[in-house]
Specification:
- The protein has a domain at 2-96 and 126-197 and 204-233.
- Helix 3 (46-96) crosses helix 6, helix 3 packs across helix 8 and helix 6 (169-194) crosses helix 7 (207-238).
- 51% of the residues are buried.
- It has ten helices and no strands.
- By secondary structure, the protein is mainly α.
């Protein structure tokens, strides 16, 4: 739902504005948890989680939203998740020394292959030549942000464990999102300054666009950086980045029915076969 809502909202609003708005809303939701039932902004993991947010929520999501505007939610999620999984595994192995077994790499690869088969059916596109260049480049940057943010979160949980401190997923998400909001706000302010003299600035959105976009922005904030990312932190506390990101890569299979219902993007037989392959890979990976 986050991906579909993002794709719709970025077509109505400037990508940076839409991203910052949903991050601010999600921050308020996560703050309500962290400062009542969680650990607030305390703990030895805070610096690592803050930097993780700058890399993942900040740099990664800025590129993600730019890519959404160029190539749409379905292709963007394919590129974003399928590239971030092996990148995350490689980064964690090089930095933290935690590698995957041959079996884990194989079944993780089966998941990614199934996802790729399911989503490469989207051949009909109105993307321009510029979209086909800028979109994938931004997608690769977003994947690097996702992978780097996940590995930094793994490091943060290691630091907390060594200090004998526990941090729950929602608090970890809150401490991460603070860094993302800061970087996104800086980019927005710089953008406003650079485009101040333009006749048609992209940062001025008519009120009717906001009226159409706000339900999607709220849905995106709740489903993605609040609930979704809070749940995403828990497996990173106990499992390797490559495994977590490989399973998270099945997200596009859930995107398929939503894009069909909302955008009229009808899946074909290859989508169903690819989905079955990916789910099989995830099941065997979990079993083994």
């Amino acid at each position: 739902m986050s991906a579909v809502s993002a794709g719709r909202s970025t077509r109505l609003l400037n990508a940076t504005v839409a991203n910052l708005t949903r991050l601010v809303l999600a921050t308020l939701l996560l703050a309500a948890w962290a400062h009542t039932l969680g650990q607030g902004v305390s703990g030895p993991a805070l610096p690592w989680l803050f930097v993780s947010g700058v890399v993942g929520f900040g740099l990664g999501d800025l590129a993600l939203y730019a890519a959404f505007a160029h190539i749409g939610s379905r292709l963007m999620v394919l590129l974003f998740l399928c590239v971030s999984a092996p990148l995350g595994a490689l980064m964690e192995w090089l930095w933290l020394g935690s590698g995957l077994t041959v079996s884990q790499m194989f079944w993780g690869g089966v998941i990614l292959a199934g996802v790729a088969l399911a989503l490469t059916t989207d051949t009909a596109t109105s993307a321009t030549r510029r979209d086909r260049v800028v979109g994938p480049v931004m997608g690769l940057i977003a994947a690097m942000g996702q992978a780097g943010g996940a590995v930094l979160t793994r490091k943060a949980f290691d630091v907390a464990d060594q200090a004998g401190r526990h941090i729950d997923g929602a608090t970890a998400a809150y401490q991460r999102i603070l860094g993302g909001v800061l970087l996104t706000l800086v980019v927005l302010l710089v953008g406003r300054h650079l485009f101040k003299g333009c006749a048609q600035t992209r940062f001025r959105d008519p009120s009717h666009q906001w009226r159409q976009a706000w339900p999607r922005v709220v849905a995106n904030a709740f489903c993605g950086p609040a609930l979704g990312v809070a749940c995403f932190q828990w497996p990173l506390a106990v499992e390797k980045t490559g495994i977590v990101l490989a399973i998270v890569a099945t997200t596009p299979l859930v995107v398929i029915p939503f894009t069909y219902m909302i955008d009229g993007d009808r899946p074909g037989i290859r989508s169903l076969v690819g989905g079955a392959v990916a789910v099989l890979g995830a099941a065997v990976l979990a079993f083994r």
